[in-house]
Amino acid sequence: MYRNWICSLLLAVSPFAIAQQSMKMPMNMSGKATTFLEEVELHDTSGTSAEPNSTPIPMLMTMRGDWMLMFHANAFIANTQQTSPRGGDKFFSTNWFMPMAQHAWGPGQATLRAMFSLEPWTVSGRQYPLLFQEGETAYGKPIVDGQHPHDFVMELAALYDLRLGEKTLLTFYAAPVGDPAIGPTAYPHRASAMENPVAPLGHHQEDSTHIADDVVTVGFTQGMVRLEGSGFHGREPNEHRWQVQQGAIDSWSTRLTVQPRQNWSGQYSYGRIHSPEQLFPTENQERMTASVMYNRPLGDGAKGNWASTAAWGQTHSLGDNVIQNSYLFESLLRFATRNNVWTRMEDVDRTTELLLGENPLPPGFEEEPAGRVQAYTFGYSRDFDLLSHLGTAIGGQVTAYTVGSRLRPVYGTDPVGVVVFLRVRVVGAGQR
User: Fold this and answer.
1) CA-to-CA distance for 173 and 102, rounded, in angstroms?
2) What are the tens digits of pLDDT across the range 69-109?
3) Which of 21, 87, 157, 283 minimizes the number of CB atoms within 10 Å of its CB?
4) How far is CA 191 from CA 56, 240, 293, 380, 430, in A?
């Protein structure tokens, strides 16, 4: 099915393709973008999202004939301890790895990309403890105070880039499992979150669509501006995380991205999502997000980098009219080559689903606002040499929570969570 879609798209643009063959650009073997168009063509992040051009992307890269091959991977082996009557303790691993191949094809460039995670195996019970987190279900019950694992297949995608001019690019994206054009770069792939082993509390307002089924996206880039539109299947993944789940294209989104300088990127996106939640199948959702990212290499970038993200996300349930906002600021500073410090600060709306715990929804249950929660995370890690092309670090972080009055009798006054971890990621020469 996806092969037919891609062929149809290529036929549709063939008049432009024939006229522009002389503008075909070679693939970027440096792994660094100097323009927004080059950043788009690298496709080294989540879906078709973009980070600032100067953002370092740890990876292995090589040429095999006419193919450019890349490999990214990031894994944490973590232990968490949480206070509060609703807190939990667990040993688990969050991880992902992404092989990718690019090849000049016809008048443009084709990219094949896959992304996998072993979390269905390394996160037992279909969740790890995360106080005040809500969203998705497992075995007919809501997941609360926990974060679900990623699917084994996080992405299977084919992309095609066609230069229509020196500063003009047309991009097509088709994925049985992929990331539609909504939200900022998903948290596992954001440079500002690369040392944090757990998900943000605002994940389901900001970037939870990064694993969606049957995604088709068309993007048009002109200079520093890109406009995209996506169609996809709106239902969130269920507890069967080893499977590839598919469905009709019943949802849509659009995103405007602006990259005015090497170190800056911003986006606004809007989506209408059909029946995203298994426990509320008749309710559709409206989602809006906006974000700004800043990245600054320190010196030549070899000894340090500073990456930050500010993001807002809002979900509006069109069935019961519940609106949830989330606000996030996160920042990661790598300094003196081996040291990393970071923070994540969030202010999020929570609903009465939290008050139920992991009990089945009672008959006639209607979700309502239950107050706001603030979370303040601070962490440190230090790299050490273990094996060639592996960036290895030991680190930890502490998260303190401020709880709304309605949630305080359930959670206590000052919950705290601690995570210690070993982190391993694939790196190229001179990277960490």
Assistant:
1) 14
2) 999 999 999 999 999 999 999 999 999 999 999 999 999 99
3) 21
4) 8, 29, 9, 15, 17
